[in-house]
Amino acid sequence: MRHDFLDRHSRLDSPIHRLCADTKLVVALAIVSATVVMPISFVTYFVILGVVLAGIAVVSKIPVSFLAGRLLLLEPLALGVAVLALFQPGGWYVFATIVVKSTLCLFTMILLSNTTPFAELLGVLRRLRFPALLITTLALMYRYLFLLMDEAERMQRARASRTFTKRRFALWKVLGTVIGQLFVRSTERAERIYAAMCARGWK
Amino acid sequence: MHIPDGFLDAKTAVTTAGLAGGGLGLALRQVRRQLPRSKVPLLGLAAAFVFAAQMLNFPVAGGTSGHLVGGVLTAVLLGPSAAVIVLASVLIVQCFVFADGGVTALGANIFNMGIIGGVGGYAIYRAIRGAFSGLRGQIVAAVVAAWCSTVAAAICCAGQLALSGTVSWSVAFPAMANVHMLIGVGEGLITALVLAAVARARPELLEPSSGRNVRLSYGPVLVFGLLISFGLALFVAPFACSWPDGLDKVAQSLGFEHRAAGQPLIHSPIPEYQLPGISSAAMATSLAGMIGIVVVFVLAFVLARVLVPKQTR
Q1: Which residues are CB-neighbours of A124 under 8 A, at least 6 positions away?
Q2: What is the CATH number of domain B10-232+286-312?
Q3: Residue B46: its chain A contacts at CB < 8 A?
């Protein structure tokens, strides 16, 4: 599975990874909520939080380049909305607030997702009695996500090696066919999965 | 349109989480009742499909590219309740596995993209589909619904940002609405192309009478409608009206407004909702919206003609 790299570090071994998922989820949610509510004038809080998060990042043994890459990839999405705040009176202040807060929250979530396998997070949700249908959907989605991403990329590559059109609409039409075909394959796969689940005594 | 953490204040985050939780709960209940057990894996696979399809980029002019969001597409293929679950799952995984979209904004994102995008879009789709026959009607309806739901979700997002005090409505509304009027055209176009491709490969997946939501019962329609209108009333209505509302109008015509104007209980930061020099930008955006809907209708009609050969009507 090629696209596995997006989630690979959640299965490393470090003191942070060995903590139980409940603790990590609760702590991460608490940090994010506190950061969102905290007024920006509490500069010490933000500085301490930054240092603590950096410490966790070092202990968790996740490569710094990977963390920086994720942060740089996701930060522009936040900046894109934050820039809007500049077009109003007092915009710089709001802009700075948003950038500090969203960066810290983003870093917290990146650390959580890369130190906790998704299956363990789902286990926490199951213990909290979330609806079974939602958990089944999430579990199946996570299981087949990387597979379908690989499949989409293979289809995309096959298309790119066979169609040489400059016309944009024709290109769009072929891409529409690729996505449509991906959906058809997903439904067929779902039928096979259901048969396999029944064969193994699913409820 | 994923709102990150730090953009919504506590009251907006809690309200949107409540609305999204209610909508998701209702959708789960509906699906558990209506969907046959053999279709349960399809929900997970459809969510993975939406995620994978969002990776395929469509080249747009000038080296930029856009991608599918998939609210209306999922609602047309699987029904509105299933679409809410699928889109919520996509957003949850994007938030917890890829840190894309904030946790505190998860409710807002599910409300905007899942409930407004999926259920609201599906309502528009159902309203228009009957006007034309067969697959052409489905494609026209899907294009218009995809455009409308993209723009509506963006406006709702602008309202949430304004309510949180992050970006003022006069800045957020024109920016979000205008950009998403263009993005919505792309979304509609891709939705139509994918639907036509699915119809060519497996026409039975698109049959309106294949057991999904043939008969809409009134209860869920009512509750979903209430949820959406409640959300719009909270996030959009406080900012949207630049003219006096119904009560003011009546007061003016009956001539007792001087009494009401005596002692305001709460000093409104924006008197009569009028911001200086702002109504022009908002008006221009509304005008652009009206032109946009006409253009999208024409586009939808042309697309349906191009994509569906005559004999399959």
Answers
A1: A21, A22, A25
A2: 1.10.1760.20
A3: 183, 186-187, 190
